[in-house]
Amino acid sequence: MLAYPTFLALVAVNILGVLGIIVWHLQGRQRPTARLIVQILFFAAMTIVLVLSGIIPYRVYGAGVASGGGLLGTSARVLWWVHLAWATIGFVRLYIVLDRRPQEARLFQDLIVAAVYLGVTLSIVGFVFGAPIGTLVATSGVVAIIIGLALQNTLGDLFSGVALTLGRPFSIGDWIQLADGTEGRVVENNWRSTHVLTPAHNIVVLPNSALAKIALTNLTRPDESHLIVLPLRIAAIHRPSIVHEVILTALQTCYCIVQDPAPIVALKSVDAIAIELELQFRVTSPTQRTPARNEVIDVVYGQCAANGIAFAPPVQSLIHWIAGTPGGQTATSGTQSLSGAL
Q: Does the model's pTM come out above 0.70?
């Protein structure tokens, strides 16, 4: 028979454990701080009652009263371990919320939660029910090896996801560009894959193992402003300094590009046919590239027309024209020699 104080203590622990579960669910996921406070209060109360009654949850007992009261004591200790797991998980989730990186830390959160539940399950089996944990762990190790061999690709994605989370080459919301030309904004990063929203408004799902091996450019760091280089050919009948001034004035009147740092007009080369320029300007984000390029082309065209500046034909059209004339081979080589000299 149980001593009367012990019986009351075990009943109180069971009641506290059940009430804690009910209140925990009533708080909801939207109130992590309140949930954590409730978990801590109920867990602390259960711990105090168990310790005062002489029952240690992490001690292996034999049969009878020493085990903590039979079925009543077993349920009390199981509830204590469950509340310990929830309190630990509550601390982890609260830290993630306060750190303001809930999406980036989702993978770590899932791993920690899984580790906590696994540890608590083994503790309940070992301390509450007295099962041989060593044998169980050895058996589970063999099973884990078999499962690991069967899930090599999945585990590769998992560990690559851990490496990406630790290295932090990107965060949720960053605009990235891969070596294969894929680019877009990162919208999700989980234990298996990374989801990228492309400019075509499609979701590209990239396995973490593949993403960890490919070259990646983060266009959001150090900031999201993006450099655009636009080539331009002006007829060589104009003085380069005048062309430079006219084009730069046109860029300074554009609203879709960043004016600090100021846009640049770089004179690259000049020959008998054309002055080659390179317009360098920034936009606030990669999504503004097309509107900014459209505006720059329109404004530069209007400014050149207003100042009587003519554009030069593209190099490809000159090559085709020269190749079609008598003695085209000689004329082509002469043009190449002139360009090389200049």
A: no
